[in-house]
Specification:
Layout lengths: L1 E8 L1 H5 L3 H10 L3 E9 L2 H7 L9 H8 L3 E10 L1 H9 L12 H5 L8 E3 L3 H11 L1
Antiparallel strand pairs: 1-3, 1-4, 2-3
Length: about 130
């Protein structure tokens, strides 16, 4: 069943020139990028996006990082795309990510983990509406 999800290549991925590699992986899997833009996440957007982490000690680091440079934001469509992209991206902690996933291959830490992806249908709808 076709569905849509949100994917963001974070500032570390953009700085390291990984945009093409990540897009290639998405498209090679048969998914379609139906919307895409590059922009810097504002502090206000970051605070809202990471609101569930507001009371955690790493919150300020998350905000500082995601606003540190431009990100590439995409709406990706395809059959089973939410789970498929989640599997492609890998665990938030690159030390726990499976070989061949984006985070295993490119992430350097939990914070600097190259990409964000929606983790559910509800978050995909919310994040697509928020960023697009």
């Amino acid at each position: 069943m076709k569905e849509k999800t949100f994917v963001m290549i974070k500032p570390d991925g953009v700085r390291r020139g990984l945009i093409g590699e990540i897009i290639k992986r998405i498209e090679n899997k048969g998914y379609e990028i139906v919307k895409m833009k590059m922009e810097r996440v504002t502090t206000e957007q970051a605070v809202y996006h990471y609101r569930e982490h507001r009371d955690k000690p790493f919150f300020k680091e998350l905000i500082d990082f995601i606003t540190s440079g431009p990100s590439v934001m995409m709406v990706v469509e395809g059959d089973g795309v939410i789970k498929g992209i989640s599997d492609m991206v890998g665990s938030t902690n690159p030390a726990d990510a499976l070989p061949g996933t984006i985070r295993f291959d490119y992430a350097s830490s939990v914070t600097y983990n190259v990409v964000h992806r929606s983790d559910s249908k509800e978050s995909a709808i919310s994040e697509i509406d928020f960023f697009f």
